[in-house]
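re: ur question from earlier - yeah i can do the single chain one, its not a big deal. heres the input i used so u can compare w yours
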Amino acid sequence: MAYEELKSSGITENTPNEVMLGAGTIHKGLKFDPETKKWNFEESLIGATSGGSTVTITPEYYTVPVDGALVKVRGLDVKVGETATFQTNLIELTPEAIKMLVIGDEADSTSVDGYKEIVSRARIQEKDYIQNLGFIGRKLDGTPIIIVFDYALCTSGLSIQGQNKQAGVVPATFECYADLSPECDRLPYHIYYPTDEELSGVDEEEGGGV
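and the output i got, formated as tokens:
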């Protein structure tokens, strides 16, 4: 019959090489050293997560209104912007994470012995923009897929829900920001996808338990 050659599945010999597995890890100040050919995976880890993470990159389109065009027409859509967000669930709540979530500072002094005191700050400062916020996922063969936002700001705030017999998880959303320059027409994100060649500076023990 004419349709006997049709496949019942999209699986190919290359499928196992393109499948991501695991929750991934999140990083602050993730960088690649061209001299050592290594990423600073361990040093840049923000902390443990629970429930996985989601990276969403969405172009924004404007459709030019043309009389008579009653359907989508190729060539009449223009890219007018984009958003890039990273959502995760922190299970480690450190003072640094709290300051990042609330846009706050550690108080110079406190009257409560044995505690650090974190207080609100009225204005966003340069230090609040996280440089090189990174997400690292891994394929079935262990090679990483790396996504980096040059600048990111936590826009979700602090929300803590304590439940009996469950660990507290703090949701966090980070948005990618462009640098302050005359041309602010695209976001500075980078997606590093492994090639078929051997990856320099990456082995299965690096990456913080993806």
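The mean pLDDT is 89. not sure if urs matches, ping me
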